[in-house]
Design brief:
single chain, 171 residues, mainly beta, Porin, eight-stranded antiparallel barrel, 2 helices, elongated, DUF6646
Amino acid sequence: MKKIFTLLFLLAIGYTHANAQASAYKGEGDLRFQIGADFQKYGTGIVTSLDLGLGKSFSIGAQADYLLGVKTFPPLSKPGFGDRFDLKARFNANLGSVIGLPENVDVYPGLNLGLKNFGGHVGARLFFAQGFGLFAEAQFPIAKYNTNANGYDNLNNQFSVNAGVAFDLGK
């Protein structure tokens, strides 16, 4: 995980020539790709998401998570691919322009429907230059499909924090 953060930090330093015209969210047709680290109680991994703007203040998208480092539970064997992987459909309300934030900043609460649960998320993006920025996001389950989840059923089915880099693919 330290290597991932070192890489993300170096990428951020390389693009810190701030550009006030960088836009965190433009609206319809806006396409954002994010990649970063996923931190959960029972593991850490990688997360990617792709969001497409459908209007001035909302977007839809998809997210994929894969846990690389997982705490093992002694009576269980190693977790399989299905235990480590999650795929989600997302809906975001992009509020940066609505609440009067600078053009290069966006905050977005949203809902997601995944393979493990129905949940919510809240995040923020800060763009430093045209097409490059950072993001941070917290995700939480609202309704778990397996209410008696134990062991590896808890992977990708708990509160998590994601952080990484964001790219504007429309630029």
